[in-house]
Amino acid sequence: MRPAKRIETLPPYLFAEIDRKVSEKRAAGVDVISLGVGDPDTPTPAHIVAALKVAVEDVSTHQYPSYYGMPEFRRAVCAWYQRRFGVTIDPDRECQPLIGSKEGIAHLAVAFVDPGDAVLVPDPAYPVYEIGTILAGGTPVSVPLPAEIGFLPDWDSIEVPAGAKILWLNYPSNPTAAVATIDDLERAVAFCRTHDLLLAYDNAYSEITFDGFTAPSVLQVEGAKDVAIEFHSLSKTYNMTGWRIGWAVGSPVAVEALGRVKTNIDSGIFNAVQRAGIAALEGPQDFLGDLRALYQRRRDRVVDTFHDVGLKFEAPKGSVFVWLPVPAGHDSASFATLLLEEAGVVVPPGRGYGPSGEGFVRVSLTVPDDRLEEGLERVRKAL
Ligand code: PLP
What homologous superfamily is domain 5-43+287-382 in, according to CATH? Predict the structure, then answer.
């Protein structure tokens, strides 16, 4: 048996070493608190769960779904974009439902990247942009996101290799928690137009923002649909990570190409889940205010704790993470190890999100209040 060479070229599993240490600690009886996972700890709103129950009882949902998603779900997504961003999207040509945005992010490379093609990948970033590129036989090219300019690309310093296909961007960002303004996205669209790149914009955290900041969609930029596709999902907005439902919207060429890959690989999203998705998008939205307030309160607790022990950084305006600069004398792995050894607290080292993630660790806000408080109390004592 010989697995493919492309599997061998995948970067090592980010958290393998830390997982091993956590297992050791737990085996030794330590009550390890993980501030590592970005997965909402509060439940999906009840009206969405209720919609799923009704839909599951309807036997017409039990057969294969359409490859292109239910027309009603596509229309609900497009109506949400109109309400939320003032952007008009054609539900038939410019919207492709996804089995979670991760699936679409990985498959976009299959649709656009030929062996040897370059893909510009932010550094640090959600790892799937790079992995998807590698699995499609492409070459990821790092675009460093310097802390000094708010973890945005330094546009003038980017060298675009000949024949590059895609530029990935993600704000509010995992892992840096940085946000982008509409001016930043205008710059990104102009850059991709100049260099004939598909701008693949990951807006998974658009609804999780703080201090009054409202995150834009890249499709709000004039003419963006010529060059951009935006990925989104119900995962973080409605606490639906386990349900696996998202979408891509934007350039009809990109949407069609992605859809063509998917028709050959998967068979769509369970129709009952799509009906629940419609309930999420069209139902009461007041839940979101509470969710933002919850994460903002936790963010403040994390920021205060690490400010008090001497770390200097600004409170982030979005996502479910805080991106912490490590103290002098540490690198990201040694600081993560210190927190595990001295406080029994797990955080992923920033290096795992790309070379420019060195010097940072990521703290997740999706941790129940009591566990977060205890973790932070132990951090105060340890540092
Ligand atoms: N994009 C970013 C930046 C993420 O952090 C995640 C998940 O953590 C995803 C996309 C994937 O989300 P989903 O596949 O649940 O829609």
Answer: Aspartate Aminotransferase, domain 1 (3.90.1150.10)
